[in-house]
Amino acid sequence: MQIAFIGKVNQTNSIITEMLISNFDAEVTYHEMDNVMEAFSTENFTYPELIIFDLNTSSGSGTAPSKITLLTDQFEGTPVLVVHPYQSKKLIMPLIEAGAQGIVSITPKEENFTKAVEQLLAGENFFELPR
Q1: Which residues contact 70 (CB under 8 A, 6 or more apart)?
Q2: 95 three-class SS
Q3: Is the confidence at residue 33, as pLDDT, over 70?
């Protein structure tokens, strides 16, 4: 399985990557938001089966919802799983409205993260929302 990870490699994202490799035999490639759009236009780019968008380490111009809209427009049919640092539903709802099919916290439990990936790949949504 090919996964495009929008964000930077850090300790948390390395743990998430290890979960993806061990549970799904995934090939994970990291991209900056601006670079993934450039990569999409090259011949060597492999269309991902899942996009993970880390709001904590991704950069580039625009708001988080506008970036999600751009990803869902460019990679139509590919689910977008957002990893977020927010503690309020009020900040998460615009991400869902922008087209994110999955939402998990920045420190997801392995069982929740695995369930989120499985549901997104099956065409279902997964939203882990704060109380």
Answers
A1: 37, 62
A2: helix
A3: yes
